[in-house]
Amino acid sequence: MESTYSKQAEAFLEKQTDKQSARIKRAISTLPAGDVKKLRSIKDGYRLRVGKIRVLFVKNRDEIHIVQIDNRGDIYK
Fold this sequence. Notes:
Layout: E1 2-5, H1 7-15, H2 18-29, E2 36-38, E3 45-50, E4 53-59, E5 63-71
């Protein structure tokens, strides 16, 4: 499946260390596997847990759009 990133998600990944960024990208590349839960607040939205980081995404037929990446305490505000 192909993944696209929002501007916020790209900016968050750029701020991370190379090791942390690679870890997040590796987890995204394995989607839809992983610690994924359906969200109630976003139609067709899901969240992926990567340690203390949360990745919010929308899954279409052949594409996964990464909506937001942030720390656990900040992403749901």
